[in-house]
Each structure stands twice: as structure tokens, then as C-alpha cells.
Amino acid sequence: MSIVVQGVTKLYGEQKALDNVSFEIKTGEIVGFLGPNGAGKSTMMKIITGFIPPTSGNVFVNGIETSGGSLEIKKKIGYLPENNPLYPEMYIREYLQFAASLYKSDIPVKKQIDNIIEVTGLAPEQRKKIGSLSKGYRQRVGLAQALIHNPDVLILDEATTGLDPNQIIEIRNLIRDAGKQKTVMLSTHIMQEVEAICNRVIIIDKGVIVADEEKKDIYSKIHQSRQVIFVEFGSDIDEVSLRSIPNVDSLKKSKGNSWLIESSADQDIRPAIFDFAVRKNLTVLSLQKKENNLEEVFRILTKG
Ligand code: ADP
Ligand code: MG
């Protein structure tokens, strides 16, 4: 089931939260929606799920416009809002029954609930009140309500924020499993989350899409424009001499006689570093190009 976003702009009064945003997500993709705080992630997700209307532009889920708010389309979408709003006084089963009742499904409610409690690993806590659950279990309840009607599209807004490392791994596994049969869009400001779960990443900054790539392509995109070389010499060398290597933008001394050298040259600068070492009678103990990680890509694309 596809998501098509066409030229969506959202104004909150004078404030432009989204500025002519367009992208498409195809069936079976798990897309990471990455951006700093205030970038417009939650706003975009609320518009996709039909909770708020865009100021202009359109969103279609499987060809149906979501701003109409039809039950037909709500049945297709599971949504975990940011901060996972729950009713602390409700029991888990009671809450899931309430969630299930919002979508008039053909499957008996008890069966749906039993199944989702199993899938989300809520079984050991299922008789408890939501208010007495740990943050990790509360997040499972949030996911359970998003999945209760077996939607084809899953929209998860910061699903792992505030969880401890073990809980994060468990929730990511749940998302990955759910993603096997669904189209998933998850927002996060944690790069590792995208690395761990997604096959595509859309980066948004100040309401504008700044990157939309397959995960494997986004690294090479940045890689060409900037390289970081780690070099370890056999003896001491001063920074001024190192500056004589062509195309060096910046230098940082690391442990011992090792340096991090940054360059924005098109060609690999390692041969030039090697030539330099030969000229200066230096031994090169190590010479490595550092792979860019997504965190760096994110920083480069959203800085300023
Ligand atoms: P993100 O989820 O990426 O942190 P949001 O979509 O929540 O970003 O917010 C995008 C921008 O819109 C921010 O500048 C935020 O302050 C503003 N904003 C969000 N919701 C509202 C609202 N209901 N009223 C006014 N401004 C809002
Ligand atoms: Mg948000």
C-alpha cells in the first residue's frame, strides 16, 4: 500500500511547518523520516494519517485522499503518535478493546486483542493498568493499538524515544517484524534507528526535504563531497608541514603520531599523503579512509 505526498505545505498561523513537501513511499518499504526537533516530522505524520489537514497539497494512501478522514482509509493506517498518549486508568485489554472498536472490523474483537497481545509481547502484563506499566511496556501498548486493526500502513512517530537500550532493541524488533508485511514510515532523530531498521531515509529540515535516498546510496552521496582520512606516521610531524599536502581542508591531531585529515577534493587524497610521507622520510603505519556514517550525513545536510 503506497503513500503519495504531493506539494504539502502547512502553516500554523505565520509559522511554516512544511514547505511544498513531496515524496512517495511504495508498498513494503520501511522509511526513516529523519530530522532535528521542529523540522516538521510530526506535522507531516499527522497530515498523512488525516488527523490535521494540510494548508495546501494532497496526501493519498493507496490512491485515497487522507484529508477526507474516511473510516475506510483510517482502517488502513496504524498510527503511533509522538509521546504515545494513553489512558493510565485503563486496563490494557480494556484500552485495546476501545481502540479496536474505533475500526469496525469483521474479525471478533477478542480474537484481535489476543493476537496483538501475543505479537507485541504484552502477555505477562496483560491484566495490568496502563499507568502501572514501565515505559517499554507502555510503548508496546502504543504499538498494539496502532496494529490492532491489522493496517497496511504503519506511521510511527518517535516510537523509541525515552526507552532504555534493551527496550529500544525489543521495540525495533517489533517494528521490523511488523514491517515485513506493511508499509512503514517512522520518524526519529536517532540515526542508528534508521541504520537498524530502514531501507530508505528521508531527511527533513525546517519543513523542506533535504535528502531522499535508499539507505545504501546516502553514504556515497556525501562521500564524494568530503573525505576523512586517518593516518598514523612512524614519527612526529608538525601541522604546518602537513598543511602543504594539496587539498587539505582541516587537520586534527589524534593519539600519538596519528592525524585526521579532512578534504573536499573530488579525488582520493591518500596518494598525496603517501607522497608527502616519502618526501619527508616518514614511515606510514596506517592510512585509512573513514566511512561516513549516517550521523555525519545528517549533520552535513541539516547544519546552518
Ligand atoms: P518535529 O516533529 O520534527 O519536531 P513538528 O512537526 O512538531 O516538528 O513542528 C514543526 C514546526 O511547527 C515547529 O516549529 C513547531 O513549533 C511548529 N508547530 C507544530 N505544531 C504546532 C501547532 N499546533 N501550533 C503552532 N505551531 C506548531
Ligand atoms: Mg515530532
Walk me through what this model shows:
The chain is built from eleven helices and 14 strands. The model has no long low-confidence stretch (mean pLDDT 89). The protein has helices at 41-48, 71-74, 92-101, 109-119, 135-147, 165-179, 191-197, 215-223, 239-242, 270-279, 294-302; strands at 3-12, 15-25, 30-34, 56-61, 64-65, 77-80, 153-157, 183-188, 200-205, 208-214, 227-233, 250-253, 258-263, 284-290. β1 and β2 (15-25) form a beta hairpin. Helix content is 33%, strand content 28%. It folds into two domains: 3-221, Rossmann fold (3-Layer(aba) Sandwich), CATH 3.40.50; 227-297, Alpha-Beta Plaits. The protein is an alpha/beta fold and 304 residues long. The strands form three sheets. The chain has a six-stranded mixed beta sheet, sandwiched between helices. Strands 2-1-4-5 form a four-stranded antiparallel beta sheet, covered by helices on one side. The chain starts with a strand and ends with a helix. Bound molecules: adenosine-5'-diphosphate (ADP) and magnesium ion. Magnesium ion binds next to α1.
Please outline what is shown here.
By secondary structure, this protein is α/β, with parallel strands linked by helices.
Q: Give the strand order of the largest sheet, numbering strands 1, 2, ... along the chain.
A: 6-7-8-3-9-10
Q: Which blocks of ≥5 consecutive residues have pLDDT under 50?
A: none
Say what oligomer this is.
single chain
Q: In percent, how helical is the residue content?
A: 25-40%
Derived from helix and strand composition plus strand pairing, the structural class reads: alpha/beta
What is the CATH top level name of the largest domain? Alpha Beta
- Cofactors and ligands: adenosine-5'-diphosphate, magnesium ion
Strand content: 25-35%
CATH homology group of the largest domain: P-loop containing nucleotide triphosphate hydrolases
- C-alpha geometry: elongated
Q: List the secondary-structure elements in sequence, H or E.
A: EEEHEEHEHHHEHEHEEHEHEEHEH
Rounded to the nearest angstrom, the radius of gyration is 24 Å
Reported by name, the CATH topology of the largest domain is Rossmann fold
* Overall tally of domains: 2
Count of helical stretches: 11
